[in-house]
Amino acid sequence: MYPCCVLRKAAQNGTRNQKFNRLMKRTLLSQHQHANQTMNRERNQYPQIYLASQSPRRRVLLTWLGIPFQVTGARLDETPYPHEKPAALVARLARQKAHAVSVPAAGALPTAGALILAADTVVELDNRVLGKPADVDAARAMLRELRAAPHRVHTGVALYAPATGQTCTRRVTTTVQLRAYNDAEIEAYIASGDPFDKAGSYAIQHAGFHPVQELARCYANVVGLPLCAVAALLHSMGIEISPQLPALCYQQFGYRCPAPDKGILL
Question: What is the rounded CA–CA span in Å between residue 163 and residue 201?
Answer without folding.
Answer: 37
